[in-house]
Amino acid sequence: MNKTNWTQNEIYLFWNKVKYPGNDRECWKWTASVDKNGYGYFRIGKTYRTHQLAWEFYNGFRPKGMLVCHQCDNPSCCNPEHLVIATNQENMSDMKNKGRAAKGSKQGKAVFVEQDIIDIINDSFNYKYKKHE
């Protein structure tokens, strides 16, 4: 089963932090450290995302340039049955198709939030049309 070069201690420490629900259908939740987006992380030599380590444990090292992606859209899930290998483009297409792509003020380069835009439009309307009353 261990298709990596992990030691027994690393295997124990990793899987001890995963909550197994008693079946392979549900998500196996990472219970230790997560980043601001909910992705678990664990250190084996260097720091990795936990879903990547879970996939590699069962399948071997991922091909260069490929990503380990969640089919369940649960960033803390470590269930290898919920994980697939994909290109970055496939991952971005999946995100867009599932409606998870950042839009509006949630985009990284957004300058205004939606309410700012509404206020600007209302102020412009008021200036242009109510000025002459």
Please sum up the structure shown.
The protein is α+β, with helices and mostly antiparallel strands and 133 residues long. The protein is built from four helices and six strands; from the N terminus they run H-E-E-E-E-H-E-E-H-H.
Structural descriptors:
single chain; 133 residues; alpha+beta; Homing Intron 3 (I-Ppo) Encoded Endonuclease, Chain A; 2 domains; two-stranded antiparallel ribbon; 33% helix; elongated
Order of helices and strands: HEEEEHEEHH
Oligomer state equals single chain
N/C terminus separation: 78 Å
Rg from Cα = 22 Å
Which class of secondary structure composition applies to the elements? alpha+beta
Biggest sheet character: 2 strands, antiparallel
Number of β-strand runs: 6
Shape type: elongated
Number of separate helices: 4
Mean pLDDT, to the nearest integer, reads 87
Q: How helical, in percent, are the residues?
A: 25-40%
Instruction: Give the neighbour order of strands across the main sheet.
Output: 1-2
CATH class of the largest domain: Alpha Beta
Low-confidence stretches: none
CATH structural fold name of the largest domain: Homing Intron 3 (I-Ppo) Encoded Endonuclease, Chain A
Query: In CATH terms, what is the architecture of the largest domain?
Result: Alpha-Beta Complex
What is the total number of structural domains? 2
Portion of residues in beta strands equals 15-25%
